[in-house]
Amino acid sequence: MADQKNFSQTLYRYLEQAELILLVAVGASLVARYLQVNGYMSGLQISLSGLAAVYFLMAYRPPAASPEGEKKGFRQLLTETILPKILWIGCSVGVIGLMFFLLQLQGVREMLFIHAASGGIGLGMFLAFRQTGEANSIPPVIYRAVPLLLISAYLLTTT
Question: What are phi and psi of 146, to 5 degrees?
Answer without folding.
Answer: -65, -50
